Amino acid sequence: MTRRRATILLHWLVLVLLLLVLASGRETALFTAAFGLSGLAMGALALAFGRMNGPGPKLTGPFRQAHPWLNRAMYLLLVWTSLSTLALSFGAHLPGPGTHALLVALVAATALHALFNLWRHMALMDGALRRITPRSLHGML
User: Fold this and answer.
1) Which of 6, 10, 61, 121 makes an SS bond possible with 42, Cβ 3.0 to 4.6 Å?
2) Which among 101, 70, 84, 94 is positioned nearest to 35, based on CA atoms?
3) Residue 44 and residue 54: Cα distance in Å, rounded?
């Protein structure tokens, strides 16, 4: 599996598992463990090989300057939430916000992330969605 395919798979898997963890109230150990491990895998992939995104040439001004920092913040929030979720599975608590608050914050950040990339794809027409969707869905975009 290529790095790009692994990133795309983890990107969408983390989203689905995040929603399943919240919907189940963190009661389903399988969803909780899968979310934690896939979130850590996504963070490890980015840490080992670098992030696979960029602001794109059509993104200008403050959005272009903020893009790499906001992306790093998303990864940090994902990794911290994944660690917190896994720690809670073992009966431990990490310092800082509780796991539920982190999960809700991650959903909120995910919604903003999605809206921003929809705006990029539709208004700037920079292909932001094509880069993160499986090739089989490109005809729909």
Assistant:
1) 10
2) 84
3) 18
Q: Which residues contact 90 (CB under 8 A, 6 or more apart)?
A: none
Query: What do you get for the CA distance between the two ends of the chain, in Å?
Result: 24
Q: Which of 47, 57, 59 is nearest to 7 (CA)?
A: 47
Give me 81's structure tokens. 């939430």
Q: Which of 33, 49, 27, 25 is closest to 103 using CA atoms? A: 25
- Interior CA angle at 38 toward 36 and 41, to 5°? 110
Q: What is the pLDDT of residues 12-67, one digit of tens each?
A: 999 999 999 999 987 788 999 999 999 999 999 999 988 877 788 888 999 899 99
